[in-house]
Write a structure and sequence with these properties.
By secondary structure, the chain is mostly beta strands. The protein is elongated, with a radius of gyration of 25 Å. The relative contact order is 0.11. It folds into 2 domains: about 180 residues, 3-Layer(aba) Sandwich (Aminopeptidase); about 300 residues, 5 Propeller (Tachylectin-2, Chain A), CATH 2.115.10. About 10% of the residues lie in helices and about 45% in strands. The protein has a 7-stranded mixed sheet with strand order 1-4-5-6-7-9-8, with helices on both faces. The chain has a 4-stranded antiparallel sheet with strand order 12-31-30-29, with no helix packed on it. The chain has a 4-stranded antiparallel sheet with strand order 13-14-15-16, with no helix packed on it.
Length: about 500
């Protein structure tokens, strides 16, 4: 065991020649390949570990849209605390920057690295079979075919360490959620817009509650902009015993604030006890589809039906087909559906209903399919509540925006069963996984938006990127008397 104190400092220009020699011997050079990209690892910020003035380890990394990445780590000493100290330095920087996670990519043969990072609390978050084979063929032919313990090097494994430090929220003119990304040893600070955050004080009422007092709600919105015209689907509700979710309405607007109702679909037409949040989608052929959440009478069960129509005024419940039937254990409701030009993506809120005292708990599953009706590939739970956090009782994804590296999502969460119907809004990010679509969403600590009234509920955000730039947000929010109005606000682009 080497003696002497260990110190970690910033990596700088004077370390480059030493670093090239170290990584050449340990990792095959400064150019590293992951996620289908070549990265000059020695051109990035980093940290150097020294023992009694002698350099014994190096880590480089950088802040990305989906967290801080460990790009390279190399040590001249093994099992002496060098690697752990370097990772701790990056984790501290990521926390200070308000990042939601630290992540890295390693290979299937690197059993030592897999054990090391798991001991530090990292967990497997993505697997990309054949990614190293593809990189060897197209990006870095010198990657060896065989690795440690005579294992073939074929696959990339991504590991993540979620960070519990609250993400920093900055005020800005466009009220976007901003995350500070520091790049030591440089002094620059970059403000990265991730998603516009709702501000009910600046919003206007698009649809008022259908009555006064708790239990009267207009909300659960799903909005689409086409050629400058806004199309909005939403749920209307009365208190339990007076109708619950009694109708889904479709409305249109030229300005996003003043809406004209063009269709109302009553719950009786779907043979259900209550309706919840609909999802309105423009089809690739120019038609329209409405996904409707329907409660089975006398039970805690929910299903999802789909109705197609040539235009938003002509949805006919008689043509509805059940696409997510659920079962005696699981209720499906409150979908988010996205078509990326090639395939369909579904995020659906699930409730386990066998135990009525636990049935309010919720989580989000993710699936893909060819037509938006049959979901042929299910990819598991991608968002769920966190023990001890503000979203401990559940996490329901409500809107998804594509980013350069994956998705950023709005979700509803709450800590207690007693807060059912008064969920608040959080944000989460996910990186795209080849052949899948998204990995597990990593929440940014929150909530990021609440109502100042009633039980604080601000939920079901529907974020619409505008063809003219910026966003229009639609969401349901509690008002002073406990009713819920459907609010909207325009958020200009960060430019």
């Amino acid at each position: 065991m080497p003696s002497g104190s260990l110190r970690v400092r910033s990596y700088g220009e004077g370390d480059v020649a030493w670093a090239e020699e170290l990584v050449g011997a340990e990792l095959g050079g400064r150019w590293q390949v992951r996620r289908g990209e070549r990265v000059d690892a020695l051109a990035l910020p980093g940290w150097v570990a020294e023992r009694d003035g002698r350099r014994v380890g190096l880590l480089t990394g950088a802040g990305r849209d989906d967290g801080w990445e460990v790009v390279l780590i190399a040590a001249a000493e093994r099992r002496t605390g060098v690697g752990s100290a370097l990772v701790a330095a990056l984790v501290d920087e990521a926390r200070e920057a308000g990042s939601a996670r630290v992540w890295l990519v390693t290979t299937n043969d690197n059993l030592g690295a897999l054990a090391f990072y798991q001991r530090l609390g990292f967990r497997l978050s993505a697997l990309r079979p054949g990614a190293v084979d593809a990189a060897r063929a197209t990006l870095k032919p010198e990657i060896p075919a065989m690795g440690e313990d005579d294992l073939p090097i074929r696959d990339e494994l991504e590991l993540s360490l979620p960070l519990s430090t609250p993400a920093r929220v900055f005020e800005s003119g466009n009220r976007s959620y901003l995350r500070r990304v520091q790049t030591p040893p440089h002094s620059t600070i970059e403000l990265v817009p991730a998603a516009p955050v709702p501000d009910p004080d600046r919003a206007t009422v698009a649809v008022p509650a259908p009555g006064d007092g708790p239990g009267y709600w207009a909300g659960g919105p799903s909005a689409v902009e086409v050629d400058g015209v806004f199309h909005l689907a939403y749920r209307l509700r009365r208190p339990v015993g007076r109708g619950r979710g009694y109708a889904v309405a479709i409305a249109r607007s030229d300005d996003g604030e003043h809406f004209e109702t063009v269709a109302v679909l009553e719950r009786a037409a779907f043979d259900c006890e209550s309706l919840e949040r609909p999802t309105l989608v423009r089809l690739p052929d120019g038609g329209w589809r409405l996904y409707v959440s329907c409660a089975t009478p006398g039970t805690l069960h929910w299903r999802v039906d789909a109705v197609d129509a040539p235009d938003p005024t002509s949805f006919d419940p008689a043509t509805a087909r059940t696409i997510l039937p659920g079962d005696e254990r699981t209720a499906y409701k409150d979908t988010v559906v996205h078509h990326d030009g090639e395939r369909w993506h579904l995020w659906v809120c699930c409730h386990l209903i066998e135990d009525p005292t636990e049935a309010d708990r919720m989580y989000t599953r993710y699936a893909t399919g060819p037509d938006g009706l049959s979901w042929t590939s299910w990819h598991g739970v991608v968002l769920e509540g966190r023990a001890g956090a503000w979203d401990a009782r559940g996490a329901r994804l409500t809107s998804v925006l594509p980013t350069s590296s994956g998705w950023v999502a709005y979700y509803d969460g709450r800590a207690l069963a007693e807060q059912n119907w008064e969920e608040q809004t959080g944000l989460a990010t996910a990186a795209v996984v080849a052949g899948n679509g998204s990995a597990h969403f990593v929440p940014l600590d929150g909530p990021v938006a609440t109502s100042p009234h009633g039980g604080g509920g601000l939920r079901y955000v529907s974020a619409v990127p505008l063809s003219t730039g910026g966003y229009r947000l639609f969401y349901e929010a509690a008002r002073e008397d406990g009713a819920h109005d459907l609010l909207t606000e325009y958020v200009p682009s960060a430019d």
